[in-house]
Specification:
It is a single chain. The chain has one domain: Orthogonal Bundle (MetI-like fold). Helices cover 77% and strands 0% of the residues. It has twelve helices and no strands. Its main location: membrane. It is found in: Cell membrane.
Length: 287
Amino acid sequence: MTQAQVLASAIPEQTVWAERVSWIDRVPRWLSMLALLIGFLIVWQIVYLIELVSPIILPSPLETIEDLFVVGRNLLTGDYMLMALWITTQEVLLGFVIAVVLGFGLGVLVGETAFGEKAVMPYLVAINTMPKVAFAPLFVSWLGFGIASKVALAAFIAFFPVIVGTAAGLHAADQNARMLFKTMGASRWQTLVQLKLPIGMPHFFSGLKNAAVLVVVGAVVGEFLGGGKGFGELIRVAAAQLNTPRVFSLIIYLSLLGLATFWIVAWAQRRFVFWHKESVTEETLAQ
């Protein structure tokens, strides 16, 4: 046997280092989520039984689940809660559309022009640092107690992530690619449409995902402070009556509305930005 054959036989067949996966990482995701939910409900029930928190403030899981079915039956029969949910859904959808249009326009201004980056962006950051909830009475005084004030507040709370995502996406294009377009004689508009916007789409959709969550918050806060006939008003009335199971159940249904908005954006990202590989966190949340 030659020296080369001896060295070859001494080298293991699998030389690539493989990370050892722990048993908890091999558990199916649905089973992990179910176990976490059951554990949370058990802790919740224990806290309720030992009266660590007053039962008036914290209902039992069974009471909350029972009220979930009551609210669900009310929604399925087309009673007043269905109309309230539809009003809140309208506020969320209209606020989201306005936030996307306004945020995209300002994002292009900030990301594409020196004037927008140097002059406009500082004011946008200053506005974003303000407590936006404090603007709710102003929107009510300007637009009245109808749906318009809630839509305006929802869009106002949700538009800034779209600005940041759009501006960051426009700056994501590689310098070599920009030089190539410039060498080929492409105009500024052609560079924006054919290079910067396609490359920046993942950042843009990241801003949309954040806005999809915040717009629900804005709509509900507007109903809290400005009246209305949506789910936020039902929560306020239930809280005033110390009907905490109803408060919890309405909050859960509102979270489903936020998740539905988020999943629609995630589906659109997978549909139109199919070349982008999502991170583990983004992929998990989108599923």
